[in-house]
Amino acid sequence: MLILKQLRAIGLSFIVLMFFYTLSYAQTINQQGLNKKNGVTVTQKASNVELTWPVGGSEHGRVVLDLTKGSPLFKSIQITSAGKYKEVAADLDPQFILTIGKRDLISQNGWNIFFDRVPQKPFKSYNVNFDKGNASVKSDGSRTVVSIDGISSHNFSGHLELTFYNGSPLFNIAAVMATQVDSTAILYDAGLTSPNPKWSKISWSATNNEFTGTASKATDTARNVEVKYRTIIGETGKGSLAVFPAPHQYFYPLDEAFNLKFTWYGNNYRKMLPGYGIGIRQDLYGDHRYVPWFNAPPGTKQRLNFFCMIGGGAGKVLLEQIKLFTHGDKFIPLPGYKTMASHFHNEYTTQVLLKNKPVEAEPEYVRVFKELGVNIVHLAEFHGTGHPKGPDERRLTELNTLFKECEKESGKNFMLLPGEEPNEFFGGHWLDFFPKPVYWVMSRKEGVPFVADDSRYGKVYHISNKDEMLKLLEIENGLAWTAHARTKGSTGFPDAYKNEAFYKSDHFNGAAWKNIPADLSTERMGKRVFDLMDDMSNWGLKKKVLAESDIFSITRENEMYAHVNINYLKLNTLPDFKNGWQPILDVLKSGRFFATTGEVLIPDFKVNGAEAGSTIKVTPATRSTMDFTVKWTFPLNFAEIVSGDGRGVYRQRINLKSTTAFGTQTFHIPINLKNKTWVRLEVWDAAVNGAFTQTVWVN
Length: 699
Fold this sequence. Notes:
By secondary structure, the chain is mostly beta strands. It has ten helices and 43 strands. The strands form six sheets. Strands 1, 8, 9, 10, 11, 12, 14, 15, 17, 18 and 22 form an eleven-stranded mixed beta sheet that branches. Strands 2, 3, 4, 5, 6, 7, 13, 16, 19, 20 and 21 form an eleven-stranded antiparallel beta sheet that branches. Strands 23, 24, 25, 33, 34, 36, 38, 39, 41, 42 and 43 form an eleven-stranded mixed beta sheet that branches. The relative contact order is 0.10.
């Protein structure tokens, strides 16, 4: 009996010992990948890990992470002022809600689908659980990455990843998860919660740009907020902490840019996150049109992430610092360039002017574009509202009204230019762009000539087929390109007409870029179009790709910046509307432009001294180089030199993770163009914002 008691005691002691050993092991952070010379220090006391990093000047940020299971992860978040630390926030836990739906991979074009209505099919929202497991910290260029195992939600699993950026009080929180289930589409909400909130105030910018807020009360029921700059801020007596998403990646493609209250604050958010929090959110039903959510293909590591920024002062001061990352939601001027946005179905002509509704001296949509920093707007009017096939009188009146409106709004530094998405003759959807007002009807009855003179409008064209459409483009020196190639109404195009005479013509300029589909696992946005861009080059066709927006209403309340991409055209001045705008089309046709989300700019780019759109001669003795300058806000991730030989695509990556926020750098990169026929450049940052050049062709 005594021996049995002793064995039981030994067994119990062993179990207790193993328990504490396991607990201790789980709380130890692996620091083998940490570069101790990059200004970051990591120390551990029991289950607490203290990480400090330089945030600019001589100041530092500090977080204390509690690796004890069941405790808030952020025990303390601090920033220095004149070298002295002060605690801005404490006892905060990162929280995520993952909503899982079903992707339609059958009816159209697989993962490239846009015409999907995910919330009309069965879906369910799940808490993301965090059972703190093994932890590690490593240096990755100028940033420091903390990884903690134990993230899971339904059939997704992975780890939590915290990234701290040297030179800025900025850090990113990501639940990195994958599923093996096919046909999955997702959304996520996220934020920071606390069982005992210590915020004195929650603040934000209203859509009219007025900074506002409310006193924080622990009993506040969670509220969704319509804000500008996508940012919600918690303030204390010692500073502020902001939460905001990636400015473009977080917004999956929709037909509208409605502000759907993308932030939240308060207690018990969605009755799923206990405690008081601040965070970001997605509306499950989007704009109630086609709502495709995000792709989550099997095995892909989806980054459900958001950014945080610490400030030692008031929330208004902190927001001004955050706005710098998107230039205050503006596309900034570059010497020698003009900005151009394309593909807007505003329908102001048919819905306002032709209905004799009251009009302002300067319409709201024009003010919105000007506030965004857009110099040139290329419209896509009459998309379902006009009469493209006639009757002639109706059609010509619509065009004339559009042309007059464009002339009225165009001036020295802003041009509103007519364009349509005809979707006739060629196949799929495409845009037209003429260098002056052109009157044409998308039908021709028997006995009606191809072109005739009208006493009021001059030349009027009637088009009945693809050959006549090409002839019109040639006569009037117009351009066409595939809208939303390989998706939406262009599923299967331009592939289906790549051998057609109209497509091979230099009046068919190529295609347009937009982030469709959205996928949170990719390092770049809009992979569908980059694949096409490379395919077109390997087909031997000197095509171009410009950025497009493809949205309908344009209002000051909308989340416009997230949905508008921009083209920087090499133009010193804008042409006079009355004299036509051929110089703009010349730039597009020549490829002397780059496209961007706005945060990454490529003001200079040459290959062997030649600009984008040029053709260069390379011999076996040629030592080829790519010279380019990049200007950025968020820290950069990488540049990639992409080339091809008519068959394959080749990539040369330049790791840029040593960069910090806000910089300009010129690169001189040797490249191998042996047996290559083309080459181009992309640059992407830590928030998956990016820019890309047009192609240089190689003989």
